[in-house]
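Reply to dn_fold:

You asked what the input looked like. This is it:
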Amino acid sequence: MKFYKYHGLGNDYIVIDPADNPGELSESEIQVICHRNFGIGSDGILLGPIQTETADFAVRIFNPDGSEAEKSGNGLRIFSRYLWDKKRVSNVPFTIATIGGLVESKIHDDGLISVDMGKVSFNSEKIPVSGPRRQVLNDKIKIDGQEILYCGATIGNPHCVIIRDDISPELAKRLGPKIETHPNFPNRTNVQFMKIIDRSNIYIEIWERGAGYTLASGSSSSASAAVAFALGYTDPDITVHMPGGTIEIIVHKDLYITLTGPVTRVGEGFIDAEIFQQNF
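and this is what came back:
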């Protein structure tokens, strides 16, 4: 099975082109490929390009646990870089269809890649968040007997943003899995712990649904920036700092998001069928 590997600020994905590898990937095969000891190791798999009538390209995004993600900002930038490397695109903007919506991508002359991620919504029915229909800004959630203020958001996939002055990888790893699977979130949720630095900068620690602790995330950056802007903490041009590096976010009118950041090509190779015969 042919594969290509890239990372966006340490958030790594494997690209598998259906043209090279016909047939469906099973949930267990995805889990093995993404496993960092028994497989290639990654934060997810990008399956594409897939033919579609709604966009120039389509891609399916899979988490390491085998579940399918609606959208990924880093994944989309990585997929865009893959298309560039394969000379399928130029520096003219092109569209990519995901199950979380249509996005537009552009590769700049300096190698940075921008993705118009779409509109962030705080509507509880769209995210979704259980309970009456509402804008989920500064709601309360109970974790380990403690009430925590949070904001719910969607940009095609669900997010829970918690603003705190003291954030750390340990906090994300401790509370992230409990919030991801909390009954408030019927489809589970991505979790961000956000610190406001100033009106142009925020810092986030990320627990990603289906992947766990993650060094960087484009959709998490988008949701966090939208929350910070909507609550009046920042201006619309925001640098999002993460353990893996920074992404530039512009919050446009009506909370439409453009994110820009780098992508690094790691390498390519073949996955041997033998790995799917092991138990782990």
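The mean pLDDT is 96.
Hope that clears it up.
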